[in-house]
Amino acid sequence: MADDSASGEPPRLELDARRAEPYGLGELIAIMAALRTPVTGCPWDVEQTFRTIAPYTIEEAYEVADAIERGDLGDLRDELGDLLLQVVYHARMAEEEGSFAFADVVDSISRKMVRRHPHVFGDAATRAAMDMNGFWDRIKAEEKAAKREAGAAPRPESLLDAVPANLPALARAVKLQHRAGKIGFDWPTVAPVFEKLKEEIGEMEAAIAAGDEPHIHEEFGDMLFVLANLARHLKLDPDAALRSANAKFDRRFRHVEARLRADGRPAAEVRLEEMDEWWNEAKAAEKARG
User: Fold this and answer.
1) Which of 54, 65, 105, 262 is the most exposed place for a label (fewest CB within 10 A)?
2) CA atoms of 42 and 14, how far apart (whole Å)
3) pLDDT tens-digit profile of 197-232?
4) Does the pTM exceed 0.70?
5) What residue numbers bound the domain in which 267 lies?
6) pLDDT at residue 75 is higher than 70
7) Is 133 left (phi over 0), alpha (psi -120 to 50) or beta?
8) Are 86 and 57 in contact, with CB atoms under 8 Å apart?
9) Can you give the CATH number for the domain in which 94 is found?
10) Among candidate residues 33, 25, 24, 47, the one with its CA nearest the CA of residue 1
């Protein structure tokens, strides 16, 4: 660490990305502190806030999920690092405000995991006495009750209060439906979900025929909500399913592009039926590979 005391600036953190020994968590925390230090830090990092960084946090979580979907463990390592940086970033900004530090984040989640897993971390008597049926929900309810008593959170007025409003829309739809289902507000089987989906498709067709744009927007949302419900009943993650479909489209369309290049004609001169044949080639090749 260089001594800049003569210039009146805080000391600089001098590190080398090429060094042989691995960096540790403590050094990552120090790196973030250096980036956030006025004058000597990074101007972009210094001006960021919780609100401006939040979109990057969400983006990094999705990139972790994408690496998992692709089965790329090397990329997963890097993306987990990017996600960890987001945690360190938010903790550093909170520390600057005097709210909490990274160590408090670690302590908080560690205590929560120990508290919510008495069947793992409790003594022998506790483990033997555990009624596993619904114990996770009971512990969470006790935690929320304690927060209300301490004045840390307002008294909830609905089961749905526990579902964060800023979740990705598909994920929030599933969680809302799951919470409502806790008091029996749910279809018992998949069959009525399909019937509801058919109903929503009919309403969507009617809205399109009428040219009613606000109604089209509403009915499209209703269709997605029912599809999320169908995924929940089938115990599927709708977002993961859509990521798989996106990846499949990506692979097959790249094959169509390759055939276009090999054909030599401009895309405008190629009939849709021909491109559809190339699409089916990619589809058949994937099925043949298993």
Assistant:
1) 262
2) 14
3) 999 999 999 999 999 999 999 999 999 999 999 999
4) no
5) 239-289
6) yes
7) beta
8) yes
9) 1.10.287.1080
10) 33
